Amino acid sequence: MTPGAGAMPGKGWASSGGANLPESCPCGGGRFAECCGPVLEDPARATTAEQLMRSRYTAFVLGDSGHLLRTWHPRTRPNDLTIGGVRWTGLRILDVVDGGPGDTRGVVEFEARYRADGARGVMRERSVFERRAGRWLYVEAETK
Is the pTM of this model over 0.90? Predict the structure, then answer.
């Protein structure tokens, strides 16, 4: 259920010709077409760990499990991913450690608000990212 971690399969939303795409980006970072939209089309466009984290949250909102799997490190990626039953309603970035264009590792701490079974909730996570072959990938949730 974690946005840092990973239901339209693949790029189904992209091939819809823009139908039903949000004007504002679900991650709260501006216009979808200028924020997470380009990263959902091509994950290599994420130049920072935070940018990839925001695109993964947006993928959860849009149900794009294909993006989540493509941006998950092969060492920790599940074979299959089914998402649903949760409506993600907001993202707040709490902390970013490294994860810049020149880094190989980064951590993004966030809170994601949601609704499930008529109840509201907040999920908090510190997501670990690594750059592999020039691309940022989600590795795991950091445990304390």
Answer: no
